[in-house]
Design brief:
The protein is an alpha/beta fold. The protein has 15 helices and 16 strands. The longest helix has 17 residues, at about 320-335. The protein is globular, with a radius of gyration of 22 Å. The chain starts with a strand and ends in a 9-residue tail after the last helix.
């Protein structure tokens, strides 16, 4: 840590509970917040006091399992503490939420956009999709999409089928969307079938890949031609915006999508996703829809403050920079050591193919995701960096990967 910043809580009724919060700030400006106390998870940093100073005591296994393992960016924690004892209106009608909405509208170049704050990604996907679709409609998505695989049937629970299409490195193709819609309309039995009602994509995709500007333009064209709202899941959007190979700006996304969300949970916030509805009246009474789905936070300012902070001084646009640099270092090591990359994913997620035994051995040395079965003999392994990834963890992982690179077990040629 390059320096220590301490914030004191002046509220008398809380002084015996919270004395201070200590923040570590890395040389690369990837800030990380720490609070005193024992850790509850195997790989969570533990704070101890020595010589009247707070020190970080890391466990032996580096953690690259996901990008929601830490708490929140120190700037957010500081803002929450500063405003903690203020009394404001609820449900997102507070001045912090209003300020956040104006900042997001400006960043998106969409002054008339509706902005709503929800808590988590699956909740957001399910609520938006239920709000858009009629009872007889389904949502088109890649077979690898988050709503298709990793949301425990949340969309189906809401009464809507996920109409899956083949993907190319996690991405939908405009021609496949057009083909599905055309086949439905030409089918003489279409009245007995689920009608395509919208399209869902994510950027980055579930595999960490990115849509090009031309790809999104073509998908948007097909959607508008066929009257299908286009919804982009931006749970990891900050890592796309920080990636040198990304072609899409927030303004491009706002122009080409009818609704999208700006991810906070995986991008420096404690929790929260900001839904941006660019098409007027796309979801009538969406505030009520959110409430009906149990997704309306009474203490809405908790979300507003976080996004107001993330959109101050372009923090959201650069918060993923260190994560991309860390992922690049890991990718370089994997390539140098001869590991087999599953695909070319330039953002904060990296996937490799390993024999089952080698993957299990690696998982005992580093906290990683055994993502999915690749074939009878191989596992797809995922590494994820984030805004708070520390260089010492990257160095530890690199050393482990180099040690494990045994051509007969750890690598696939």
């Amino acid at each position: 840590m390059s320096y220590i910043k301490t914030l004191y809580n002046s509220a008398n009724d809380m002084s015996n509970t919270i004395k201070h919060i200590t923040f570590g700030v890395g040389k690369d400006d990837s800030l990380r917040g720490f609070s005193p106390g024992k850790c509850h998870y195997l790989h969570t940093p533990e704070i101890r006091k020595e010589d009247n100073e707070m020190e970080l005591c890391m466990h032996s296994r580096p953690s690259f399992a996901s990008d929601y393992m830490e708490g929140a960016h120190p700037a957010i924690l500081a803002r929450l503490m500063e405003t903690n004892m203020l009394k404001t209106q609820g449900y997102g009608s507070d001045p912090f939420s209003q300020s956040a909405r104006e900042k997001i509208r400006a960043a998106c170049g969409c002054p008339e956009a509706e902005i709503h704050f929800l808590v988590g990604g699956t909740q957001t996907n399910a609520t938006v999709i239920r709000g858009i679709l009629h009872s007889y409609e389904g949502v088109i998505a890649a077979g690898s999409g988050h709503i298709s695989v990793h949301e425990a049937g949340a969309i189906e629970l809401g009464g809507h089928k996920v109409l899956t299409l083949p993907h190319t490195s996690g991405k939908l193709r405009a021609a496949d969307i057009e083909g599905l819609v055309t086949d439905y309309r030409r089918d003489t039995n279409s009245g007995h079938m689920v009608m395509p009602g919208m399209v869902y994509i994510s950027h980055p995709t579930e595999y960490g890949t990115l849509y090009s500007l031309s790809e999104l333009q073509e998908i948007s064209r097909v959607c508008r031609k066929n009257g299908l709202p286009l919804f982009m899941d931006g749970a990891r959007l900050a890592y796309a915006l920080s990636c040198p190979r990304n072609e899409l700006t927030l303004r491009d996304i706002a122009r080409l999508c009818d609704v999208f969300y700006i991810g906070g949970t995986k991008c420096g916030a404690l929790f929260g996703e900001a839904v941006v509805i660019t098409q007027q009246n796309l979801i009538p009474h969406f505030f009520t829809v959110i409430k009906q789905n149990g997704a309306l936070l009474a203490k809405g300012r908790m979300l507003g403050i976080q996004f107001d902070t993330l959109f101050e001084d372009d923090l959201y646009m650069k918060i993923g920079t260190s994560a991309i640099a860390a992922a690049d270092q890991i990718r370089d090591t994997l390539t140098k050591c001869g590991y087999r990359l599953f695909l070319d994913s330039p953002t904060n997620q990296i996937f490799i193919i390993m024999e089952h035994e080698a993957a299990a051995r690696l998982a005992r040395k580093a906290d990683i995701s055994l993502w999915e079965k690749y074939d009878d003999n191989h596992t797809l392994v995922r590494f994820v960096t984030d805004w708070a990834t520390q260089q010492r963890d990257v160095d530890m992982l690199v050393e482990i990967l180099e040690q494990e690179c045994n051509p007969t077990l750890a690598c696939v040629s």
